[in-house]
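Input record (one chain):
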Amino acid sequence: MKITTFIGSSREESNSEILADLVTKDLTYTKIDLKNLSIQPIHDLRHTDGGFQLVDDDYDTIINAFLESDLIIFSTPIYWYTMSGIMKNMIDRLSHALRDERFPQFKEKIKSVEAIVVAVGGDEPKIKGLPLILQFKYTFDFLNMRFSSYIIGEGNKPGDILQDQQAVAQANLLNKQLKEL
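The corresponding structure, as predicted from the sequence alone:
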């Protein structure tokens, strides 16, 4: 199984990255840190004669990861009760990817990709993070991706997530399940 984790935090060794790392501990996987890529915001021209235009940035890295993966973990801090801006920017660009003639297999391939969400916030995230989970669910439904699991953890300062025993236990359990596949 080919696993890719997208890290959507602007912070090094963020709580959401730490939690995602627990999910993938001792597994072979690819980690893509979105803050280290140049991904331009979408310029939505799909309803014009020209359609989407090619953009000179690192977005093909994202598309190739989707094409090569069986499982994608979307790891994000909960910012203002939703995903981080850099993760949202990546997802917005999927509108272009769905129509990109360079990747005709994209739509069909993502139907076989499983999705997991790992999110960490500091303001009652297990309740206030639920709209974020629904947002991902609707996105995965639109893409025809299978949404198999999510973990919402609590933490503010770096490393705080390790104090959330429930989230750590869920990450360890998911790790064990992935190792059995």
